[in-house]
Amino acid sequence: MADSIDIKTVDEIAHLARLEFDQAAKVEIQNDMNRMLKFIDKLNELDTSSVEPLIYMTEEHNILRHDTPEITITQKEALKNAARKDSDYFKAPKVIEQNK
Question: Could you give the C-alpha distances from 3 to 33, 37, 87, in angstroms and in order?
Fold first, then answer.
């Protein structure tokens, strides 16, 4: 089996993910991660030497139309119903504040 997950590893992963857990949750996460490693080890027991690598899940290909640019609405028509506008642009309230 691959190395098992210890509490220190759970702490490091939680730190990287910016998560905080109490001790009981850490133990539960440790157990879950160790069960995942056991499952992966079980899969490694299978002989896959004659199996071709899977690149796509199906043989289907996307059939997409060509993206051809076209003007469906003019700038003037788009600005006609704007609540607030400048001569050429929509005006929106400032939503980002800078910290000083």
Answer: 11, 8, 65
Structure tokens at 10: 């759970």
Cα–Cα distance measured from residue 70 to residue 29, given in angstroms and rounded to the nearest whole number:
53
Q: 36: closest CA among 8, 10, 14?
A: 10
Q: Closest by alpha carbon to 28, among 4, 13, 3, 7?
A: 7
* pLDDT, position 97: 75
Q: Is the separation of the CB atoms in 8 and 29 below 8 Å?
A: no
Could you tell me the maximum CA-CA distance found in the chain, to the nearest angstrom? 68
Question: Whole-model pTM?
Answer: 0.49
Domains and CATH numbers, the chain: 7-44 (1.10.20)
CB 4 within 8 A of CB 34: yes
